[in-house]
# Entry
Amino acid sequence: MPNDPDQDRPGEKILISPRYLAASLPTDHQQLLDIFAEETAWSAHTDASSLTLTSPCRRITIRHDQAAVGRGPHMVITARTDEEAAERWRADIGGFVPIECVARLLGTLAGELATDPDHVVYGIGAEPGLLELYVDADSWTHFDDFGLSGFISHDGHAAVVSRPVDSSAPPIHGDTSVTWHLAASPEDLGHLWDISFTDKTPPLLLHAVAAETLDPRPTLRSTSFPFPAAVAPLVTIERLSSPSRRPTAQPPHGGPPRSTEPKRAPKTR
# Structure
């Protein structure tokens, strides 16, 4: 997927809206992992096409396989009770996931793992099954039908979907253990990106990614990260001429500051 030539101005800051279409290249995901490995105590192993990071406790692995791009998840996070144990939970990342979502997931994982590894692996101390999200009713619509629930964007391009293990709905990706699925699939492009979480994934990890996806504010990004040209017609890109601007304090096109109170605070399971 070629890059947008209008963005090849390193160092500039831009606002991209909606943020769930702020696509990033899989190679950017790998670069983020490289930085993550340098800044943390996680060990790294590379081969011809993949990079694997292992947590200090040896129970969490993150694998990025460039050869898998376009054929399924290219980044997989796996938790085990020990190195030889069966998988306890898994997060699969595929396609042009916004790098902000990946960064939020990695940051939340690393921070919680450093504080309480057992919480990350076993879910000890976590609220059982309850996830609270703040959702902008002007951007997302809640649904609960046919064994699935969640939110779909008003343009129909993205969704956050919950499927309980005992749901009568068809399994997501044919895997009955997948209980949450976040994805963007614009009609003109087809599948753009998706992230799925299996049962027993700590709620705080899902919450971090879902909150990033559902946030109605534009994404602030440097043009150092290439933007896929095919997605450009579907988003609004605003260049920031002054580094002193603070786009998150108010809407980018003027008007009163955005209220910090949520318009809706649904609870989903």
About this structure: The longest strand covers residues 87-95. The chain has one domain: 8-242+263-268. Confidence is low (pLDDT under 50) at residues 245-269. The helical segments are 26-39, 99-115, 117-122, 203-214.
